[in-house]
Design brief:
Blueprint: E1 4-10, H1 12-16, H2 20-29, E2 33-40, H3 44-50, H4 55-71, H5 76-80, H6 85-99, E3 105-112, H7 115-123, H8 136-140, H9 145-150, E4 159-161, H10 165-175, H11 189-192
Antiparallel strand pairs: 1-3, 1-4, 2-3
């Protein structure tokens, strides 16, 4: 079995609330190895590159928004002036670009076996109000899609965590160069794995 890597980004709401340490501790405590770490102001170009520019991605984001509105009996068109999922996805992405530039972001690359599954489980549902207690979003946030959309802003959900091995590798290359990533052994690895 090969180790996986994931990118974690503590977004401006996590940075501005001063909970970087509390969030990163969750990943270290479970045994993930931090192999890259930095603080930076995100450029518009990096955020555009980080989030896909495909109609498939825009459609996925837009459909999730439309589904949430429908479940609550709300009219998405009153907020977005359209019911087209791709158009809604593009609006949400423009909000994300602004959001990522509200303060510096804290970037971390973690590595482990089954790393992607672990970071997704610890992060919790991307919609904070639906995240389970014990997860980062469940414990530290309560934002809702309806409120975010009503205020013409993205969901403030504290953290980005890679959701596939392929996305993790792509995202890491956007934010880190090879010289910023380190290969070393944690003392705990001797106890957790057969080395």
């Amino acid at each position: 079995m090969k180790k996986q890597r994931a990118l974690l980004i503590i977004k401006p709401d996590g940075v501005q609330r001063g909970i970087i340490g509390k969030i990163i501790t969750r990943f270290e405590t479970v045994g993930l190895k931090i192999i890259g770490l930095k603080f930076e102001w995100a450029t518009k170009e990096k955020v555009i590159t980080h989030y896909p520019e495909t109609d498939a991605w825009f459609k996925k984001v837009g459909e999730r928004t439309l589904t949430n509105y429908e479940k609550k009996g709300l009219d998405a068109k009153s907020v977005f002036k359209t019911n087209d999922a791709v158009a809604i996805g593009k609006i949400v992405k423009s909000w994300l670009i602004e959001y990522f530039q509200e303060s510096p972001v804290f970037l971390t690359v973690v590595e482990s076996y089954d790393c992607i599954e672990i970071v997704r489980k610890l992060s919790g549902n991307t919609i904070p109000v639906m995240a389970a207690p014990g997860t980062i979003r469940g414990d530290f946030s309560h934002d809702t899609i309806d409120l975010a959309n009503e205020q013409n802003r993205p969901l403030r959900n504290l953290i980005h965590a890679s959701d596939t091995v392929e996305d993790g590798e792509k995202e890491i290359k956007v934010w880190f160069n090879d010289e910023e990533l380190f290969d070393y052994e944690l003392a705990a690895e001797k106890f957790m794995y057969k080395i």
